[in-house]
Amino acid sequence: MGDRVEIFEVGPRDGLQNEKREIPVAEKLALVDCLSQAGFNRIEVASFVSPKRVPQMAGSGEVLAGIKRAKGIRYAALTPNMRGYDAAISAGADEIAVFASASEGFSQANINASIAESIERFEPILEAARHIDLPVRGYISCVTDCPYDGAVAPEKVAELADHLFAQGCYEISLGDTLGQATPDSVARMLLAVREAVPATRLAGHFHDTAGRAIDNIDAALAMGVRVFDAAVGGLGGCPFAPGASGNVATELVHEHLTRLGYETGLDGDVLVKAAEMARAMRAG
Ligand SMILES: CC(C)(COP(=O)([O-])OP(=O)([O-])OC[C@H]1O[C@@H](n2cnc3c(N)ncnc32)[C@H](O)[C@@H]1OP(=O)([O-])[O-])[C@@H](O)C(=O)NCCC(=O)NCCSC(=O)C[C@@](C)(O)CC(=O)[O-]
């Protein structure tokens, strides 16, 4: 049996948050229920942020309440502040994620806070989660390039990863939000980040704007990363990162990893079905 590499499915959240069409909750439920048959350990399905800023995530409570929960899967939600945390807990999220940026420009555009302010906001969330043993993931956006500030220094990413890990995030997902990273810039960034956080606690989160996401996954695999975020059907993008396109497609990552001899534990046929559903949702 090959080495295990986990794909963390983010399509129902990162994927759908940027769709132009207002997607009914029933369609989201159907997608998540299909994905729940594929063999994932973790699926991100919700985001408790301002509905004015991200209207597509407004029905997140209904999504968490309506999905058919499959045994062994943790259904995850983004929580930017205590209000989001409380909503995620009431809705029954199995794990939550805080999200920061390695660049000041994107931090302001995305969450209306500096990097330092965002870390302060996360403190009560992590403390509350600790009390109830709720796993908290930490995202870092713009780990190589920022749409506002340009190239991002690997040391900035390492410093923030160190903070989030010390605050109690069990895993740090490193986001190439713009999809402009290269295998070289990914390797340079990971070399610095690995000094602060072990590779076994890192995840790669690559958007495929420049068609290099799979090459970037290879670079991260070579540096010891064994968890990758992906969105079925290549759904996605970030409303606050102009020019960014979808996440790397789950079914492509699964195929690629399988070809390399890794075990993902996923059922390729279910992924193809879910990818068709995702594409149909996008087409409307
Ligand atoms: C972060 C905030 C909330 C800060 O919010 P703020 O702008 O600092 O201001 P606020 O706290 O005064 O709140 C502004 C408005 O949002 C409301 N509000 C405040 N908090 C909540 C909440 N939890 N749930 C629902 N509503 C909330 C609040 O009530 C108020 O409503 P209004 O008075 O205007 O009617 C806001 O800026 C926001 O929602 N930003 C959107 C962030 C977002 O969702 N970005 C996309 C996801 S991150 C991402 O995609 C990157 C990632 C993770 O995938 C990795 C990668 O690819 O890089």
* Shape, per Cα inertia axes: globular
Number of domains: 1
Distance from first to last alpha carbon:
40 Å
What small molecules are bound in this structure? Answer: 3-hydroxy-3-methylglutaryl-coenzyme A
Helix percent band? 40-55%
Largest sheet: 8 strands, parallel
Count of helices? 11
Say what the CATH topology is: TIM Barrel
CATH superfamily descriptor: Aldolase class I
Strand sequence of the main sheet, in spatial order?
1-10-9-8-5-4-3-2
- Please tally the β strands and state the result: 10
Question: Which regions contain 5 or more consecutive residues with pLDDT less than 50?
Answer: none
Can you walk me through this structure?
- The strands form 2 sheets. The protein has an 8-stranded parallel β-sheet. A two-stranded antiparallel sheet has the order 6-7.
- The N and C termini lie far apart (40 Å).
- Helix 4 (82-91) links the parallel strand 3 (74-78) and strand 4.
- With 284 residues, it is of the alpha/beta class.
- It is 42% helix and 17% strand.
- Helix 8 runs parallel beside helix 9.
- The chain contains 11 helices and 10 strands.
- It has a single domain (6-282), classed as TIM Barrel, CATH 3.20.20.
- The protein binds 3-hydroxy-3-methylglutaryl-coenzyme A.
- 3-hydroxy-3-methylglutaryl-coenzyme A is lined by residues 14, 17, 47-54, 80-81, 83-84, 99, 110-112, 139, 141, 175, 177, 205, 238, 240.
